[in-house]
């Protein structure tokens, strides 16, 4: 018989399967080489994260790390060392239910450019970037594992669904896992466009075109 607790268990097992499928898809398309990148999903009581040193192409749904809201491991394998990037997003964005962090090539390349606008690393060159990713701020460089990254994300996450870590890669959140994956892909493709257009005279969307996207599609792009 379906009781509230076994409904929750079956919901969680579906989420675990979907994390593995999304990881495989990102890995197979070259967006998370080696053991880079991590994926998390908010549950009703805690959250799931991909384990440390795991390849996103070969995730075992049953051994994903289950954590509490202090970052403590409740069950599963040892979590990614980058767990605090995810926690900082969730703590400051109650509407975000999934986070994807990648070291994908084009977004990582943009994160290494000198002279980026720290408030908005990628200009509004396409409507889908504005709608799916929004204005993308730059987080200053810190060594991997430095918790200062979390406090920097915490300062910006209230107003930004995605941030770019300097010389590292993007952290992207959304209301569900598939949307977070699509937003991370949109960010990667727009990074590629930005690099393709480098040095050329580019026509970005103007403020009334952005305002239209805010009104019609609730795009998060504050002027
Ligand atoms: Zn990373």
What does this structure look like?
The chain has 223 residues and is α+β, with helices and mostly antiparallel strands. 40% of the residues lie in helices and 14% in strands. It contains 7 helices and 8 strands; from the N terminus they run αββββαβααβαββαα. Strands 4-3-2-1-5-8-7-6 form an 8-stranded mixed beta sheet, sandwiched between helices. α3 (105-111) crosses α6. The longest helix has 25 residues, at 4-28. The model has no long low-confidence stretch (mean pLDDT 95). The structure holds zinc ion (ZN).
Radius of gyration: 17 Å
Quaternary form: single chain
Bin the strand percentage: 5-15%
* Helix proportion: 25-40%
Reading side by side through the largest sheet, how are the strands ordered?
4-3-2-1-5-8-7-6
Write the layout of secondary structure elements.
Layout: H1 4-28, E1 38-43, E2 46-49, E3 65-67, E4 73-75, H2 83-92, E5 98-101, H3 105-111, H4 127-132, E6 138-139, H5 148-157, E7 162-165, E8 169-174, H6 177-196, H7 207-217
Parallel strand pairs: 6-7
Antiparallel strand pairs: 1-2, 1-5, 2-3, 3-4, 5-8, 7-8
This protein binds zinc ion.
The site of zinc ion has 5 residues, from loops.
Key traits:
223 residues; alpha+beta; 8-stranded mixed sheet; 7 helices; 14% strand; globular; binds zinc ion
């Amino acid at each position: 018989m379906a009781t509230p607790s076994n409904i929750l268990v079956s919901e969680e097992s579906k989420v675990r399967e979907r994390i593995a499928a999304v990881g495989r898809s990102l890995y197979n398309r070259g967006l998370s080489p080696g053991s880079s990148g991590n994926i998390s999903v908010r549950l009703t009581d805690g959250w799931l994260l991909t384990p440390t040193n795991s390849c996103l192409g070969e995730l075992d749904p049953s051994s994903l790390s289950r954590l509490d809201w202090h970052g403590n491991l409740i069950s599963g394998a040892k979590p990614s060392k980058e767990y605090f990037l995810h926690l900082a997003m969730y703590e400051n964005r109650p509407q975000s239910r999934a986070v994807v962090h990648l070291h994908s090539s084009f977004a990582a390349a943009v994160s290494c450019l000198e002279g980026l606008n720290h408030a908005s690393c990628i200009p509004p060159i396409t409507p889908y970037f504005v709608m799916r990713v929004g204005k993308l701020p730059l987080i200053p460089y810190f060594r991997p594992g430095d918790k200062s990254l979390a406090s920097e994300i915490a300062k910006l996450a209230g107003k930004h669904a995605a941030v770019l870590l300097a010389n590292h890669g993007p952290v992207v959140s959304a209301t569900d896992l598939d949307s977070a994956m699509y937003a991370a892909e949109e960010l990667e493709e727009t990074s590629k466009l930005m690099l393709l257009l480098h040095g050329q005279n580019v026509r970005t969307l103007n403020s009334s075109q952005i305002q239209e996207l805010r009104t019609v599609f609730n795009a998060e792009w504050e002027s």
